């Protein structure tokens, strides 16, 4: 493992922001690794956007530090901005200019040489599927098109990190799925670390591998989604539901003998099995060996909502 | 520097391709043409004066008279420039420079790019100043061309020098209005608020300042039933000092001194009266004398402009930019 030498993409140390007397972000210690797709969650007013602004050097922390790829966000904002793509909460474009003009402006601000500007703009528009409206004024775009244009806008600089503040707000359900898949695909393709704020937990779960939940400016939980999910469901265990035509005590004994099984309970015509890992193949085999007739076997999946509720309530 | 130039070019292109810019440009063209060529414009008046060359003043600076002569019911070109054109162009170019980008959410995106924050405000200011310069150039060239074509008078070298100087101080004057408008656009989030503030200041100085100056003078140095010369002088002195608070007056004086070296502004006359007790009329001021006279005016306008810009700059540099 090269974990120790691995560069942290985002690191904040006791990052704090006060407005007047109220503390909006409270001694935040965030560490995000390369390749993560990090879901930054929390209720309205939790301080997510404020944290992001500090990461980008768009507002000064009251105390503490923020680093992106080792660059201090407050003291070296240009270096941070060169490698970071940011889609703000309410993203805007010059409405009376065309999509490609808007992106070309971004390209020039990033110092791209003139012969590369058009090429990069076309590529970016192609990636998000907006090539056909490249020469159309952005004012004529729908909400979803603008959000996709915002993704194209950050692709212009080929960022190593993308910070997306609610990139799916205001998009229809179908559009959200497409948008998230697009983000995930791009992240994989250009090896981009993603930090994404969202209130759509179900959708976040689709693409994030790691989540952090911020409540009142404090990170109440942070970790790998899988792990947190299991914890939310009960001590890192999995639950498997098995439906059989007939349940016999012999069968229950057989299942109990499999190593890794914690408990087997009967509930009507269902068996509720708690185990430490996904033992479905072994359970199926045990049932067949005991001449049981298997109707259905379901692994109970945690939902990000469970995690969210659990920690939100605790906070 | 790269960022500054990118912002500058974008803003400049905007000024010349947007409806706002086109309307401003058309206004400048129309006003220039009407002030000189209009039915009762300067040309008519000037033609008569040239026909009787003995008339005071006209002769040596005939070409400049194009810019300073008013027609029968048409004010002169420099009146338009001073009171109306330059303030309006400056204000309109700057009134939503910063806040509209904040409101539309483009500012967040702009400042997330690797450019220094001051590139944005400097680039916008510079683009505004260059736009003003281009519009003024056009206006002056139009008036000159009309003069050449209709009257056949060509400018002498001193006249050209005076026109160039006038061009320069008009740009400075435009920069003042632009800076004022941008200051409000940094401080006020709604565009309506920033627009009303800068237009309000323009209207105050343009329409009410002279009245305010008269009232101030009458309160501080009231005139008796049959005022003495001393009373008149001090009353008039206060009036002039008070009206010089107005950048419009300051610039108006400076422009007149530059373009009408034979004429005397109220301030100059007062100085003469106070100094010698008589309205003694020497010949036209030399270019050097004119410059010396207007130097304090220019320093004041330049200083105020720099201060306005500095206040906007400091505020903008430290500000938190949220897209909502
Ligand atoms: N300029 C400001 N002055 C004072 N308080 C502010 C300011 N900006 C934000 N706040 C407060 O800071 C808190 C955190 O705001 P922030 O925008 O970071 O929340 P958020 O987590 O992004 O919420 P949302 O999910 O609604 O976007 C809010 O309570 C807000 O009222
Ligand atoms: Mg937010």
What does it look like?
The complex is a heterodimer of chains A (315) and B (324). Chain A has two domains: 3-228, P-loop containing nucleotide triphosphate hydrolases (Rossmann fold); 237-301, Alpha-Beta Plaits, CATH 3.30.70. Chain A is built from eleven helices and 15 strands. Chain A has helices spanning 48-55, 77-83, 99-109, 114-127, 143-155, 173-189, 201-207, 225-234, 249-257, 280-289, 304-314, and strands at residues 8-19, 22-28, 31-33, 37-41, 63-68, 71-72, 84-87, 161-165, 193-197, 210-215, 218-224, 238-244, 261-267, 270-275, 294-300. Chain A starts with 7 loop residues before the first strand and ends with a helix. With 324 residues, chain B is an all-alpha fold. Chain B has one domain. Helices cover 77% and strands 0% of the residues of chain B. The longest helix of chain B has 35 residues, at 117-151. The radius of gyration of chain B is 22 Å and the shape is globular. The chains are: A alpha/beta (315), B mainly alpha (324). Chains A and B meet through helix 2, strand 7 and helix 3 of A and helix 1 and helix 7 of B. The complex binds adenosine-5'-triphosphate and magnesium ion (MG). The site of magnesium ion (MG) has 4 residues of chain A, from helix 1.
Itemize the secondary structure elements and their pairings.
The complex is a heterodimer of chains A (315) and B (324).
Chain A (H helix, E strand, L loop, with lengths): L7 E12 L2 E7 L2 E3 L3 E5 L6 H8 L7 E6 L2 E2 L4 H7 E4 L11 H11 L4 H14 L15 H13 L5 E5 L7 H17 L3 E5 L3 H7 L2 E6 L2 E7 H10 L3 E7 L4 H9 L3 E7 L2 E6 L4 H10 L4 E7 L3 H11 L1
Parallel strand pairs in A: 4-9, 4-10, 7-8, 8-9
Antiparallel strand pairs in A: 1-2, 1-3, 1-5, 5-6, 10-11, 12-14, 12-15, 13-14
Chain B lengths: L1 H16 L1 H19 L4 H10 L10 H7 L8 H18 L4 H6 L1 H6 L5 H35 L5 H31 L3 H30 L8 H15 L3 H13 L6 H11 L10 H32 L6
Helix pairs in contact in B: 1-2, 1-8, 2-5, 2-8, 3-4, 5-8, 5-9, 5-10, 5-12, 8-9, 9-10, 9-12, 9-14, 10-11, 11-13, 12-14
The complex binds adenosine-5'-triphosphate and magnesium ion (MG).
């Amino acid at each position: 493992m090269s974990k120790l030498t691995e560069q942290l993409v985002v690191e904040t140390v006791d990052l704090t922001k006060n407005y007047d007397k109220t503390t909006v972000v409270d001694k935040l210690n965030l560490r995000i690794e390369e390749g993560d797709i990090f879901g930054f969650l929390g209720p309205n007013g939790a301080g997510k956007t404020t944290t992001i602004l500090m990461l980008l050097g768009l507002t000064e922390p009251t105390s503490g530090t923020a680093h992106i790829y080792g660059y201090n966000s407050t003291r070296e904002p240009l270096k941070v901005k060169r490698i970071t793509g940011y889609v703000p909460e309410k993203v805007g474009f010059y409405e009376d200019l065309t999509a490609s003009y808007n992106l070309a402006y971004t390209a020039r601000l990033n110092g791209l040489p003139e012969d590369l500007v058009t090429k990069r703009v076309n590529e970016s528009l192609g990636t998000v599927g907006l090539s056909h409206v490249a020469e159309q004024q952005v004012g004529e775009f729908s909400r979803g098109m603008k959000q996709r244009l915002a993704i194209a806008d950050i692709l212009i600089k080929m960022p190593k990190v993308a910070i997306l503040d609610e990139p799916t707000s205001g998009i229809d359900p179908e559009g959200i799925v497409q948008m998230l898949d697009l983000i995930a695909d791009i992240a994989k393709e250009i090896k981009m670390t993603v930090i994404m704020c969202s209130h759509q937990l179900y959708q976040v779960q689709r693409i994030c591998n790691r989540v952090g939940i911020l409540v009142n400016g404090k990170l109440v939980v942070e970790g790998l989604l899988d792990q947190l999910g299991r914890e939310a469901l009960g001590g890192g265990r999995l639950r498997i539901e098995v439906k059989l035509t007939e349940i016999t005590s012999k069968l229950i004994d057989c299942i109990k003998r499999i190593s890794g099984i914690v408990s087997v309970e009967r509930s009507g015509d269902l068996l509720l099995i708690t185990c430490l890992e996904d033992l479905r193949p072994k359970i199926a085999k045990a049932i067949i060996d005991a001449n049981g007739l298997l109707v259905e076997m379901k692994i109970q999946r945690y939902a990000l909502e469970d995690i969210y509720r659990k920690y939100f309530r605790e906070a | 520097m790269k960022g500054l130039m990118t912002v500058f070019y974008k803003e400049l292109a905007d000024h010349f391709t947007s409806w706002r810019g086109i309307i401003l440009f058309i206004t400048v063209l129309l006003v220039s043409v009407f002030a000189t060529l209009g039915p009762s414009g300067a040309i008519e008046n000037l033609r008569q004066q040239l026909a009787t060359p003995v008339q005071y003043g006209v002769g040596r600076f005939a070409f400049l008279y194009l810019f300073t002569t008013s027609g029968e019911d048409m004010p002169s070109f420099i009146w338009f420039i001073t009171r109306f054109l330059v303030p309006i162009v400056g204000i309109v170019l700057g009134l939503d420079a910063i806040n509209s980008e904040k409101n539309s959410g483009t500012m967040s995106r702009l400042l997330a790019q690797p450019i220094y924050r001051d590139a944005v405000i400097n680039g916008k200011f510079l683009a505004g100043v260059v736009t003003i310069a281009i519009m003024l150039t056009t206006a002056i060239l139009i008036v000159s061309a009309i003069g050449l074509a209709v009257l056949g008078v060509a400018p002498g070298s001193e006249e050209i020098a005076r026109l160039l100087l006038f061009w320069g101080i008009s740009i400075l004057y435009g920069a003042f209005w632009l800076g004022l408008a941008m200051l409000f656009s940094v401080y006020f989030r709604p565009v309506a608020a920033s627009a009303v503030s800068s237009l309000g200041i323009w209207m105050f100085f343009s329409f009410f300042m002279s009245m305010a100056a008269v009232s101030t003078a009458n309160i501080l140095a009231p005139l008796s039933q049959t005022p003495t010369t001393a009373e008149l002088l001090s009353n008039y002195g206060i009036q002039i000092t008070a009206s010089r608070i107005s950048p419009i007056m300051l610039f108006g004086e400076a422009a007149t001194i530059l373009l009408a070296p034979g004429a005397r502004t109220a301030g100059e006359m007062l100085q003469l009266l106070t100094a010698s007790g008589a309205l003694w009329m020497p010949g036209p001021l030399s270019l050097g004398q004119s410059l010396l006279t207007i130097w304090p005016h220019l320093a004041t306008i330049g200083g105020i402009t720099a201060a306005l810009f500095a206040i906007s700059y400091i505020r903008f540099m430290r500000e938190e930019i949220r897209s909502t």
